[in-house]
From TrEMBL:
Signal peptide: none
Species, as recorded: Streptomyces lonarensis
Membrane spanning stretches: 129-152
Keyword Transmembrane: yes
Name of the featured protein: LCP family protein
Keyword hit for Transmembrane helix: yes
Length: 625
């Protein structure tokens, strides 16, 4: 019996917790017997038949079906094992506090070692989305060669579309800069959907077919207003967050707000639009578009690109992912690309940190390949790439045409590779389940989000108070002025309790009394229980509400990172977090002086896409030379 079964004998095993090829990751009877609750979310619409390799209309140029044909010819295994005996379920640790290199997806997995909500191993997740950000760029490359009207219509038909925002908390779009330029925020999602034979072959157990998918990979692609730089922020899939109320557009089903759940489950609550709403709730960053990729999309895109060069410092043979490479550089594609992206044990010390570096290396290399166009000069390959890119993607309606994707690709193509920064949200073990889940690292995570909100590149110098960096220091005479305190009602909730700390009794009443003394006489206590690491003040959208919220924050000494604008908020709600367990004023941060970005974002080391010298360090236990 696997070790994690011994630790949690009564755990309910869910196939969604087992990995891509679920049947290969556990040899216990329970592994295959638990299906998903198919009522949790609707199935995603089936893709057009072109996705299975059909050539499309007869009038189309030759080659527009070759992507799927190529993937069908691959003779390598897309699973992380050939039998149940190859993939025993194993336990794992929390992966530290998120500090150090990468600090990425603490929940990343190749079906290998790392806990999940049920106590089982984590599963692979980056592989399904690493190519999604390159898809629009790929279409720009294709578009540069020209395409007939019928072919464009064919590509448009390949795309699957879904509503952008399903929550009741939609943020206003980012404001333009002084030159009228507006930043662009795109959420990239990797789905574990098993809604086709190809996805089932690559993704696993038959008992999960048709079940609601989850978003195991989630990255935000932020393109600066002047299109000079790009920041890619990833969030571990087991990060505990608030998932706002969402409504399924297909069925009308309403999913109530969840105070704390892992972010990957947001996709099950109506579709990708709920993941968008969840990101906006967490980060305060308005999202303009989303792009979602599934299992088969990774293989078809990797094949169509013609391969991506990667490097290992020694020969590697990883029995978990089946990755076998000689030392030095190798061009990988198709299912071999999946093996690279899901390899954990073969790299570094066998932890998620090494795997994350390998995934970032792959994405950086693919970006360089697309920009250089080294493998994209043949019209047939261009058509195959366009077919693969459009078949692989689910997008929001505003991004749901080849022309729109082409325009986006043009924007992405203009960004220099050395200005493309990839980073993971700083995280710490979540108090609710520190062995399996993570939480945004207090202070550091909000600092990263503030950088993106204020359109500040990670490779630029920035001030110590990030949250104020994008503000105009000259008062605008037309700006809204805060109302008198007596006109502003603040609801106060006590969130000072955690798994390791009991809530401070009467804490909300103490702060209400302080607010009343400051003139906010309409303030009152909300007795509903809640637990929250960081203190927050949520307010309605609009200039007046923001001015009032800033006045309340100033009166209590709250930092700017505590402010949260929400379209669903009808009043001001102050949640007192674990970081404010005593005192009438929020505790001032110790004056440690300005610090370097590497110190302030210590668990989120960034890399740039122009680094072509990187070579993965192979774990000696899996080296072949």
């Amino acid at each position: 019996m696997p070790e994690d079964d011994e630790q949690q004998p009564v755990a309910v095993v869910r196939p969604e917790d087992l990995g891509w090829d679920d049947s290969l990751y556990d040899d216990t009877p329970a592994a295959g017997g638990a299906g998903r609750d198919r009522d949790d979310a609707p199935q995603r619409a089936d893709r057009p038949e072109q996705a299975e390799g059909a050539a499309g209309p007869a009038a189309l140029p030759a080659g527009n079906g070759s992507a799927s044909e190529t993937s069908g010819e691959s003779d390598t295994s897309g699973a992380d094992g050939d039998s149940a005996g190859d993939r025993p379920a194993t336990g794992g640790s929390a992966g530290g506090d998120g500090t150090g290199t990468g600090g990425t997806d603490a929940a990343d997995g190749d079906g290998g070692d790392g806990p999940t909500p049920s106590g089982r191993q984590r599963r692979p997740r980056w592989a399904r989305v690493l190519i999604a950000g390159s898809a629009a760029l790929a279409l720009a490359v294709v578009g540069a060669g020209g395409a007939g009207w019928y072919y464009v219509q064919h590509l448009n038909g390949n795309l699957t579309k879904s509503d952008l925002h399903l929550g009741d908390n939609k943020l206003d779009k980012a404001a333009p800069n002084d030159r009228g330029q507006t930043p662009l925020n795109i959420l990239l999602l990797g789905s574990d959907a098993r809604d086709s034979e190809e996805n089932l072959r690559l993704g696993g157990a038959a008992d999960t077919v048709g079940g609601p998918p989850i978003a195991d990979v989630q990255m935000l692609l932020h393109v600066s207003a002047d299109r000079s730089n790009m920041t890619v922020v990833s969030i571990p899939r087991d990060t505990r967050v608030t998932i706002p109320k969402c409504t399924d557009p297909a069925t009308g089903r309403e999913f109530d707000m969840v105070e704390s759940d892992t972010i990957n489950h947001s996709l099950q609550r109506g579709g990708p639009g709920c993941s968008v709403a969840t990101w906006e709730e967490l980060t305060g960053i308005p999202i303009d578009h989303f792009m979602m990729l599934d299992f088969a999309g990774v293989v078809s895109m990797a094949d169509a690109v013609g391969g991506v060069p990667v490097c290992v410092d020694r020969g590697v043979d990883d029995p978990k992912s089946h990755l076998k490479l000689e030392a030095g550089e190798t061009v990988i594609k198709g299912e071999q690309a999946l093996q690279w992206l899901r390899t954990r044990h073969g790299f570094g010390d066998g932890s998620d940190v090494g795997r994350t570096k390998a995934q970032h290396m792959y994405l950086s290399s693919m970006v360089r390949e697309l920009k250089e166009g080294a493998r994209l000069t043949d019209p047939g390959k261009l058509n195959a790439l366009a077919n693969a890119a459009t078949n692989a993607l689910t997008v929001d309606p505003d991004l749901g045409s080849v022309n729109r994707l082409y325009d986006l690709g043009e924007d992405l193509r203009d960004v220099p590779s050395e200005r493309i920064n990839m980073i993971t949200m700083p995280w710490v073990p979540a108090p609710q389940n520190p062995a399996a889940h993570v939480a945004p690292k207090p202070g550091a995570a909000e600092e990263l989000f503030a950088l993106v909100r204020n359109d500040i590149a990670l490779d630029e110098e920035y001030p110590d108070d990030i949250a104020e960096a994008g503000e105009d220091t000259d008062a605008d005479e037309d700006a809204a002025q805060a109302r008198e305190p007596a006109e502003v009602a603040v609801t106060v909730r006590n969130g000072t309790g955690s798994v390791s700390l009991p809530a401070i009794t009467g804490r909300a009443s103490v702060v209400v009394a302080e607010l009343a003394a400051l003139g906010y006489v309409q303030s009152h206590v909300d007795e509903r229980p809640i637990s929250q690491a960081e203190t927050s003040l949520t307010h309605p959208t609009g200039d007046q509400a923001e001015a009032d919220a800033r006045a309340v924050a100033a009166a209590l000494g709250l930092p700017d990172r505590a402010l949260r604008s929400s379209a669903s908020a009808e009043a001001f709600t102050l949640v007192i977090g674990v970081d404010w367990r005593e005192g009438n004023q929020f505790p001032a941060a110790p004056d440690a002086g300005p610090s370097e970005p590497e110190e302030r974002l210590d668990s989120a080391e960034a890399i740039t896409a122009d680094d072509d010298s990187a070579c993965m360090v192979v774990n000696p236990l899996h080296a072949t030379d």
